[in-house]
Design goal:
- 44% of the residues lie in helices and 10% in strands.
- By secondary structure, it is of the alpha/beta class.
- The chain has a single domain, classed as Alpha-Beta Horseshoe (Leucine-rich repeat, LRR (right-handed beta-alpha superhelix)).
- The protein has a 6-stranded parallel beta sheet with strand order 1-2-3-4-5-6, with no helix packed on it.
- Helix 4 links the parallel strand 4 and strand 5.
- Helix 3 packs parallel to helix 4 and helix 4 runs parallel beside helix 5.
- It is globular.
């Protein structure tokens, strides 16, 4: 019932895990003020995807950003997260970097690609440090190739150059930073 909390950062609480996230989700799935949720490196496994889905699916949620970097959602957790993401109308940024997605998670990546390609508010996605393989990259690219709403999509560079070019989108502000660093080195 807290009306003033806008950002909740629980990063590096390795004992939180999916059980702690389950308890947290019971409160957050009815919270209408929280805008930023960070759960980096919290020991959340594949069961955590369902709890994040519950939080995102709340019709009055205001969550605009969620960062789950460094957990272990894997393909199963990603698949469980998609329904809540699909019904969410506020999220603009989601970071799922380093979450143990593998080349065998093609079905989950296909579902995720379809979900984010149709999302109305999502503009930033990061799945770097996940070795999704070219089949996983193709599953995503089928849905994202024509999507112009997502302006930042960060993906691991281990993909073939053709698939990487279709998926990777670096925001203009980051491109400018890269050019400034390069010119300073000269």
């Amino acid at each position: 019932m807290n009306k003033t909390l806008l950002t909740l950062n629980l990063d590096y609480n390795t004992t939180l895990g999916s059980d702690g996230l389950a308890a947290l989700s019971r409160g957050l799935r009815v919270n209408s003020t929280l805008q930023n949720l960070s759960l980096r490196f919290c020991g959340i496994d594949e069961h955590g995807g369902q709890y994040v889905s519950n939080i995102l699916a709340f019709p009055k949620t205001c969550i605009a950003s969620i960062n789950m970097e460094g957990n272990q959602l894997g393909g199963f957790g990603l698949l469980k997260l998609c329904p809540g993401l699909k019904s969410n109308a506020t999220i603009r940024s989601i970071c799922l970097a380093d979450n143990k997605f593998k080349p065998t998670d093609v079905i989950a990546l296909e579902c995720f690609g379809e979900t984010i390609s149709k999302h109305e508010t999502l503009t930033e996605v990061s799945i770097v440090r996940n070795i999704i393989g070219n089949d996983g990259g193709l599953a995503l690219s089928r849905h994202l190739e024509q999507n112009k709403k997502i302006t930042s999509f960060k993906v691991d560079t281990t993909l073939s150059s053709k698939i990487y070019e279709v998926l990777s989108r670096i925001p203009v502000s980051e491109k400018k930073k890269g050019k400034k660093k390069a010119s300073k080195k000269k």
